[in-house]
Specification:
392 residues, alpha+beta, Beta-Lactamase, Phosphatase 2c, domain 1, 2 domains, 5-stranded antiparallel beta sheet, 11 helices, phosphatase activity, hydrolase, PPM-type_phosphatase-like_dom
């Protein structure tokens, strides 16, 4: 008999991209004897989980408990919810390569044995992979994620992202953009290649769609250099020249480029005018001092220097845009002066996927829950220490 996850995989592969949820429901009912399933996806702020519903099909998800959903999503562990009649709703994280997509709920006739939970977790992994792939071919899951209409600038920014989190044997990484539905020029990008992680965070000049278009050009110029085996300096210089020859110095992009050697913890860096780099080591938050060079696009043929620093196992790096660091909603001291360090220290026991939310929530509280005046980006990187890659 075929291994159950393989059977589910086949059903998911053969389903149209906009019907992955229905295909998963049929396969899981067959393989696990479930009476119902539901898929919930995280919204753009990762502040809520919302069902992918088909109005033609009743969903057991209508009875899902929000607190249990959030506990599963936050802990990234299966959670059982046993009803008085003996039925059990099993909540399973939907994540792939460390990116948290949502939660799969499976309704079972009785409390499952550990072997069933493990099998269901494997199936959830297959569903997550299928959803991530299908997301390129349909708008269905994007519609479920958004709780209000995105601005044109935000639409462009979110489509440009590599993801919102990623994990590896030696690191965990996560990022968040706010205000999620109207973000303009601030952005982040990353790529993992041959045990080297490249991370960039950008403050695009201007507001709205104009800033988003400038950032899109900059990100793709850096990707072009990176995908042609160019190092950080070449990435910065190509992006700078591209922006300059398009805008003749009237527009620029403040950017920090980082490359982590996942085996040694050595970090190469190019600081092109901002954002800010903070290190949490133990209980102490300190700024990583880098030589600040010209923002990208200010002058023709600007040349950049590479700097380096080391991470210790257990170190946490935060990269924040000016919209975080310089926030001063009431004319008092900026968020980066003292409040930001307090919020970063409060994340010590949280994974990066939760830590970015903590810093953003504290930023919102600093604004007394008023709308952010500027775009804000937080990226959080934990280096765990050297880890051998599978196959090495």
């Amino acid at each position: 008999m075929a291994d159950p996850p393989t059977g589910v995989s086949r059903a998911l592969r053969e389903a149209p991209p906009d019907r992955v949820v229905e295909a998963a429901d049929r396969a899981i009912r067959s393989v696990l004897g479930a009476s119902g399933t539901a898929v919930f996806v995280a919204d753009y702020r990762s502040s809520g989980l919302w069902p992918v519903l088909d109005s033609r099909q009743p969903s057991a998800g209508a009875e899902a408990v929000p607190g249990v959903l959030q506990r599963c999503f936050s802990s990234q562990q299966p959670v059982r919810d046993l009803a008085e009649d003996g039925r059990c709703r099993l909540y399973l994280p939907l994540s792939v390569w460390g990116e948290r997509l949502g939660v799969l709920m499976v309704e079972l006739p009785e409390a499952p044995a550990e072997t069933v939970v493990r099998r269901a977790a494997d199936i959830a992994g297959e569903v997550a992979l299928a959803l991530r792939a299908a997301d390129r071919e349909t708008d269905r899951y994007r519609r479920a994620r958004r709780q209000e209409r995105l601005s044109m600038a935000a639409e462009l920014q979110w489509e440009l992202l590599p993801g919102r989190s990623v994990s590896h044997g030696s690191f965990q990484l996560a990022g968040q953009m706010e205000p999620a539905y109207t973000v303009g020029g601030d952005h982040f990008d990353w790529s993992l290649d041959d045990n080297r992680l490249t991370v960039t965070v950008l403050n695009g000049d201007g507001v709205g769609l104009t800033a988003a278009l400038l950032t899109a050009v900059t990100v793709n110029a850096m990707r072009n250099a990176r995908r042609s085996d160019g190092g950080l300096v070449e990435q910065a210089e190509l992006a700078s020249d591209t922006v300059f020859y398009q805008h003749r110095g009237h527009r620029h992009v403040s950017t920090v480029l980082l490359e982590l050697d996942c085996a040694t913890g050595r970090v190469g860096a190019v600081d092109a005018g901002s954002p800010h780099l903070m290190r949490l080591r133990g209980g102490t938050v300190s700024r990583v001092a880098l030589e600040q060079q010209l923002p990208l696009g200010m002058f023709a043929e600007t040349r950049y220097d590479l700097q380096e620093f080391d991470l210790d196992p257990g170190d946490r790096l935060f990269v924040v845009s000016d919209g975080v660091w310089a926030a001063d909603p009431s004319g008092r001291e900026t968020y980066g002066e003292r409040a930001m360090a307090r919020s970063m220290r409060a994340t010590r026991l949280q994974p990066p996927t939760e830590a970015i939310g903590t810093v953003m929530r504290e930023l919102q509280a600093f604004h007394a829950d008023a709308d952010l005046r500027d775009d804000a980006v937080v990226v959080c990187l934990d280096w765990r220490g050297s880890a051998r890659r599978e196959g090495d």
